[in-house]
Amino acid sequence: MSLFFAMFSFALAMSISPGPVNMIILSSGANYGIRKTFSFVSGATIGLTLLLLFIGLGFDKVINLYPDFLKYLEVAGSLFIIYMGYLIASSKPELDIQKQKQPTFIQGFLLQWLNPKAWIACVAGVSLFSEPNNNQVFLTFSSIYFIVCYLSLFSWSILGDKVTLFLSNEFRLKAFNIAMGCLLIITACFLLYTQFS
User: What kind of membrane protein is this, topologically (predicted)?
Assistant: First the structure.
C-alpha cells in the first residue's frame, strides 16, 4: 500500500505543480472556459502518459548513452514554450472563440514531448517505479500517473475558469494574458540560460 501512496504522491507533485503546461491551461480556462480547454488537457495528459511509457519501456537506455539528447530537447522545448507564450500574450481580450487561437489537443500533446519538466518527471518516475524484468510495477505507476495527471490538469482549467470572475473586463483579461504569456517566456528563457551557463 505504501508503494501505491508513493506513486500517487509522486504523480500528484509532478502534475499539479506550476509549469508551462499548467500555465497554458490556466490561461485557456480563463479565456475559453473548461469545456474548450478540455482538448488541450487531454492532449497534454495523453502526451505525458505516452512519453512515460516510451521512456519506461526502453528509451531510458538511449538517454543514458546520449546524455546530450536532453540538452537539445531543452532548447527545442524552450523555443516551443516561447512560441506558446507569445500566442497567449498576443491573444485578443475578447472572448470570441471563433477568432481566437485556443490551445489544441496537438499542442498539448507536443508540449509534453518538448517540455523539459515532463522529461525529467518521466525519467525520475521510471527510475523510481520500475523493476528489471517486471513491467507490472511500471505499468501500475503509468496508470496511476495517467489518472492523477488528468485530474490535476483539469483542476487548472477549473481554476482558470473561476479566475474569470476577476477578469470581468477587456483590460483585466488582456493584462492577465500578457502576464501569463510573459511568465511562459521568462520560464523558457530561464531554461535556456541554465542550459548555456
Answer: Multi-pass membrane protein
Kindly provide the b/e burial profile for residues 19-45, where b requires at least 16 CB atoms within 10 angstroms of the residue's own CB. Answer: bbbbbbbbbbbbbbbbebbbbbbbbbb
Which three cell numbers mark 165?
Answer: 470572475
Q: For residue 131, what are the β-bridge partners?
A: 134
The tens digit of pLDDT for each residue in 37-88 reads 999 999 999 999 999 998 888 776 776 777 777 777 778 878 888 888 888 7
All three cell numbers of 186, joined, read 521568462
3-state secondary structure of 98: coil
Write out the three cell numbers for 144: 496511476
CA-angle at 79, arms to 197 and 74, nearest 5°? 50
Whose grid coordinates read 520500475?
Answer: 130
Spell out the domain ranges in the chain. Answer: 2-10+20-196
CA 112 from chain centre, in angstroms, equals 5
**pTM of the full structure:** 0.79
Tell me the C-alpha distance between 78 and 34, whole Å. 26
| Continuous H helices in the chain | 2-16, 20-54, 60-65, 68-89, 105-114, 116-128, 135-163, 170-196
pLDDT tens, residue by residue, 94-133: 544 444 578 899 999 998 998 887 888 888 888 888 877 7
* Residues composing the chain: 197
